[in-house]
Amino acid sequence: MSGPSLRKKDAHSSIHEAALNEAIELRTLFQKCLEDGDKVKALQVIEVTIEHWESRTLKHAEAEEEGLYKDIVEAYPDRLTTVIQLTRDHDLMRRIVDNLKNLLQSDEPNQRMITLLDSLVIIDQIHNDDEMNKLLVEGEK
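RE: above sequence
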């Protein structure tokens, strides 16, 4: 069974919006550090950014997969394809975060990391829109 805030479209949307806005702010700050040549601060920011994606978005994704998605498919079997697509989005985000972590271990903060962060943001924006419009429907319990 999923938590009540995951089932309520407005509350769920707010969770997504807050996490995504924070991720965008961190990405912007990281870009500024790179532009300023502040490698020490850039390293700190990218570490915080990775932790943010893991602790906010990917933990939320895990909760969705373990509860909400199972509940939705049980109640609405016709939404299985959407759940599979949304789970794939989560998998892509996990892989990109792992890629970021691996890149950080072998290199210093760089523009390639911005590209990966931008990819995360784009996938998450599409994912959030699909989840709100294809999976969660107002008026359902």
